[in-house]
Amino acid sequence: MRIALSLACLLGVSALLTSAVWADDDDISPAANQAKPATGHVDPDALTLDQAAQKLAGIATQTLAAVNQQAEFTAYGMVLNPEPLLNIRQQYLAASAQQDSAQARYSEAEHNLARTRNLHQQDIVSTRRLQEQQAVWQADKANLASNSYQQQLISANSRLLWGDTLTSWFTRAQDKNAAQLLEHRAQLLQITLPANTQLNPSVKLIHIQAQGQRQTAIPASFIAASPQVDPVSQGQRYFFKCEPCRLPFGAHITAWIPTDQQTSSGVEIPQSALVWHLGQAFVFVKNDAEHFSRRALNQYTANSHGYFVASGLQASDQLVITGAQTLLSQQLKGLIPDEDKD
Fold first, then answer.
1. Is residue 38 a part of any domain in this protein?
2. Which of 26, 124, 177, 212 gives the lowest tally of CB atoms within 10 Å of its CB?
3. Has this prediction a pTM greater than 0.90?
4. Which residues face 225 on adjacent strands?
């Protein structure tokens, strides 16, 4: 009897345990064994930033306006020392002074000859005296011609090296352009164009900079074409005058020269708006109060205002000009998986 009772108790306990196990299995949600759904697609170029965060980051924007820009190409040159032109000026003015002196002597000799000839006709002076005066007149005439030839030679040599315009400036007794160069109120530039390239006749102004930075380039005005080409590249040379320049003589410069092509339409952006990531240039555009988008710039050219962009941006876009780097950092941080942030 006791054995039968013990077996009945053991069977009851086993049934209870089995019932409890099956009850626990029924309570487990079927979804618990399924994988978590993948997160939706996140646009890597979009960013949301509330007003408080924008203020903290110092975000500032600018409304873009449409502009037209003349196409340019680059050339190279140097700042010339005007000392050779100064020497030409000194030689020419000295020859001019001698010419004036020779002219005065010749005029006096001519006047004396006329008076002596008149007196000779009246038998007041001898024939020998007339002949002596004629000899003096002839010598003064030859001296006058010699000084005239000297002036012409100096001028011709100058034109072979410097052209008509610069020669004209430096062979005048008074010339404001020559005075500017000699008094260091302006500098003389020589720009060499690439081979088989000519300067557009309508170009009267270019921009130059010693470090090759277009944003800080300063204007230089056209003077004339040089009579000589570059002996190495065979490129045509041109002379320009730069009044704002204060560069050492012999300094090499970069020049930006307008072409004869039609102007391009686009927008101008400041240098501070451009950010870089993996070798690509980007800008941020504010879409609305709290949303920004990152746009790649594939083509842009530097100018005096920053950069000219012909495509990728348009007028009326709200461009981020301050805080773009902060936006880029925040955007890239948001793309890092949570498990990699720890």
1. no
2. 26
3. no
4. 238
